[in-house]
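INTERNAL AUDIT FORM
Audit reference: QA-55
Scope: verify that the stored structure record matches its stored sequence.
Auditor: D.O.
Record contents follow.
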Amino acid sequence: MEKDSTETENNVNYTNTLDQNLSGNQGHINEYFYNFDNDVEASFFRYNPNLMANYQSYSDYFSLFGEDPTIMTYKTFPDYLLTATKEDEEEFTRRYPIDSLTIIDSVVYDSVEMISTPFKNLESLQWNLDAEPELQRYKLVSSDWIVSDTTIFYNDTFDVTAYRAILNTPFIDSGMVFVDSSEWTDTNYVFISEDQIRFTNAFQFVKKQLSNDSLVFRINTDCNDNGQWDIAETVIEDFDDNGVFEVLYEYSDNNNNGQYDSGDDVIQDYNNDGVISTAYEFVDRGNGVWDPHEPFFDLDSSGTYDPNEPYQDRNCNGKWDDAENYVDNDLSGDFSEGDDFTDSGNKIYDIEEEFTPKDINGDGVSDKLLYLIGDKPNNLIVDWADQDNPQVLLELGLGAGITSRWGEQFENIIEEVEFTDVKQKYVEDVDSLVTLFTREKVGHVINNVSSPDEYFITKSEWSKETGGETERFYNYHIFHNPDHLNQVSYPSYFLPIGFYFSPNEIENGFWSKKNLESNVLYYTSNGYLRDGEMVDTSYFDTTDIAIYFIEKSYEVESSSVTVPAGYRPSLAVPAQDTTFQADECFKITITTNMTMVGSGVDFGQKTISWLVKNKGLAKSEIYIRWTEHPFDSDYTPNSNNLDSQNQAWVGLNRIELTSVEMQSENNVMRKFAHSTKNIELRDIGEHPDFDFDPLYISNQIGIQTLDLRELIEE
């Protein structure tokens, strides 16, 4: 907010001398900045931060390099006006039908894509021998994803109508809108029926999958391996009273020979039979048949079982069991019918066998299938088709079948099945389509709005040498002169360090609003610059990114300035210094401090400009600063530049006048005859007088462009 005189707010002094009588030097702004009715073309030497830090003057630079610094040109365009018309809302938004674009019962050909549910085929089952023995299981080897799609074409019939207007709604609440009257933009409004259109498609597939038998997931519960369901084993006595029925060893088998002998220690004769051996707390029943060794896969072809080899645990005891002992009565060399054998149990107490109920023969009575279904495919499959030589199957493919030990047949462990995947999709049923054609809105000025013919466009242009290549830069600067000299631009705000790691990671170190705004560049009293003028302002600015507290200080003083604008016979010799005295020159210092509320991070910007009568801008310097450490300057960025107020200003940009040409134009013709040419903002990039350069968003003050990326340039 502006103050009428020196006041104190929150212990801060704010000064405003605009309404005070000042006795010092004064001059009209059009004489000291630029009269935009004149054709102005000026050249400046432009110094980036590195040059500002190392060369205090033009002569220092030229004496070392023997050439000029980068040259920036600046020119006005008095023959052009920016069209910035503001009409009332009714006229701007009134819609007119376009009969030539209206179609009743328009038929639109459209399509909808249907996609099936993806699935994979089970190609094979492979036993994973690489895992630890207790973790080994079958791996399901699957195909790639299988999916199908189809496109259904259909016709949609609806009415198409079109309208035109200057601007679309909602309209601006205040200010002035800049409209590109050479470009149309279209907005479509689609009106949809409440009932959608339904499409269906049936995808047919043949899928390879694990059969319903799920053999690899079965957990065997036939723990005495007799092929039939049994009740729990008979309990004898819990000799050691531990609540668990088990086989108790009555001795310590010190030599691990499986029997008690003189080298073993007696533990206890649990069953009091006078024999130190093993005591069974239950009747360990067998299955009534001779059992060969449990099938295993002989990895090393040794002919004997090794602990790391997969086997079929047929009696649920969790260990591999060899064949039962027998007496070869017929001397055949193998077990045969009639031979005596030891019908061994599994040496663990078997509870009543669990089962899976299933009606196999369809008689309405559930059969007891001696298995449960687990969540891991770790049931090793063995084909007992040859009872004397059962085969362990480490890999199973399509159509593979087996025979169990008890003659049960299992076909197609991996089977092929046909299935139908029905998909449906709903699409909107369009009732009508309305297209609104409007002009392109390219800018919106909210504050300090003037009539359209009060706006002036100017342009700066410069180049840089990088890696042997020349890169060209430019910017447009829009001014108008209501009560003071105002500049129209996109308001820019800093992003503090921490939002990025180097200036190159964001556009130019700043972010900008999307609407143009007009703000005071140079304060004047009735159009005059005055020695001793001081204006302080402060306000809170709420944006989409953060709330910023902004303080601005504006100060004018008469001061001389020296710039390299003197005569030079050729570019081989340096430009001579020219000094403009204090009675014809104003030094204007504009200091802006922007604080992000909450984080407390400060960004400061100071612009010092010298305006010379009938020459315009002679010199301008821009400095910036970030939050300084309150106690230890070592933690302050650019601490070597600390001033008396503990502020570390670093140079960002300096320009010095080297030449200027001004050609007077007839201001009366501009104001009343309107002999100038109109140009839309968007058309700037299409016109040769502007080198086909379009308007773009930037951070600028006066005729200088701020770009934090220059801080890291050499």
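Auditor finding: record pair retrieved intact. Residues 93-130+144-209+429-438 form one domain.
Action required: none
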